[in-house]
């Protein structure tokens, strides 16, 4: 069986594309906060639905692209820092053997008494977001003032503030301040737009017009479900293409063999001569 160069290139391309499509990881951190008190125990994990090996890396204030074994305790695709310190502040991410990368998480470690607990990942536009002002010494929530880009927003008596239906205008640097305890380092809150889904075209009948105008918009959960199922659909299509290509190569017929020359018997004549009779 012979493989042409085109078929080999197709197989390599599909294998490469399939590996990058299926190997997607998400980096999570526990506790889920972009700011940490010095001495806290922090756990980072590369969550993935495949068997690909992922390595946790970071760029800190003192080092660049160092692996978990140099600053934490690795355990598979996870890493634990038993007592985090200010020089552990930096950007963390996961990276596979093929070079694929996950989302990044920025962690700020402070030796101060106040931190602002804010989302570590971008916030979806239209969602509600709550930030908490925490102090290391007090066990209960205390009144705190909140600031955005250096401007005072308001004071909350319980130490947490909720931003309803966030928009791109809410993106920025946030910090909080507690009287008698100090203020937190600033944290950047990112806002990302919701995915848009184009509805199917409707007919011009009165029934369709009235039903489309009265129907509610697609919910956020439906949009998330579509986004999550799209990579799986791509993987399924690629697998089908790969199987069809392999079957085509296996069923390829061998090259034509020249036929043996045929003997034409019509041109042959009998040369048989009967024996002559003997004279007596």
UniProtKB/TrEMBL annotation:
GO cellular component, one term: external side of plasma membrane
Signal peptide boundaries: 1-23
Top-rank taxon: Eukaryota
SUPFAM superfamilies, per database record: Immunoglobulin
Gene Ontology BP terms: cell surface receptor signaling pathway; immune response
Family matches, as Pfam families: Ig_2
Membrane spanning stretches: 222-246
Annotated SMART domains: IG, IGc2
UniProt keyword annotation of Signal present: yes
Residue span of region Disordered: 182-213
PROSITE patterns from the UniProt entry: IG_LIKE (PS50835)
Domain Ig-like: 25-110, 112-192
Keywords: Disulfide bond, Membrane, Signal, Transmembrane, Transmembrane helix
A GO term for molecular function: transmembrane signaling receptor activity
Biased composition (Low complexity): 203-213
This protein's name: Ig-like domain-containing protein
């Amino acid at each position: 069986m012979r493989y042409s160069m085109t078929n080999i290139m197709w197989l390599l391309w599909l294998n490469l594309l399939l590996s990058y499509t299926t190997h997607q990881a998400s980096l999570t951190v526990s506790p889920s906060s972009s700011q940490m008190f010095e001495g806290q125990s922090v756990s980072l994990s590369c969550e993935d639905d495949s068997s690909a090996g992922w390595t946790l890396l970071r760029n800190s204030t003192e080092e660049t692209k160092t692996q978990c074994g140099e600053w934490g305790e690795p355990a598979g695709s996870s890493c634990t820092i038993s007592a985090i310190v200010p020089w552990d502040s930096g950007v963390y991410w996961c990276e596979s053997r093929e070079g694929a990368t996950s989302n990044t998480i920025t962690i700020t470690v402070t030796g101060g008494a106040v931190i602002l607990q804010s989302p570590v990942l971008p916030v979806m536009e239209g969602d509600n977001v709550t930030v908490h002002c925490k102090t290391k010494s007090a066990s209960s929530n205390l009144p705190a003032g909140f600031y955005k880009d250096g401007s005072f927003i308001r004071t909350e008596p319980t130490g947490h503030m909720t931003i309803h239906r966030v928009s791109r205008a809410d993106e920025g640097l946030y910090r909080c301040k507690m009287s008698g305890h100090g203020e937190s380092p600033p944290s950047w809150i990112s806002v990302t737009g919701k995915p848009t889904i184009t509805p199917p075209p409707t007919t011009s009948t009165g029934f369709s017009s009235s039903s489309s105008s009265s129907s509610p918009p697609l919910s956020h959960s439906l949009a998330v479900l579509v986004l999550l199922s799209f990579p799986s659909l791509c993987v399924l299509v690629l697998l089908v293409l790969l199987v069809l290509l392999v079957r085509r190569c296996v069923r390829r017929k061998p090259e034509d063999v020249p036929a043996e020359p045929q003997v034409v018997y019509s041109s042959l004549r009998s040369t048989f001569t009967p024996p002559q009779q003997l004279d007596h």
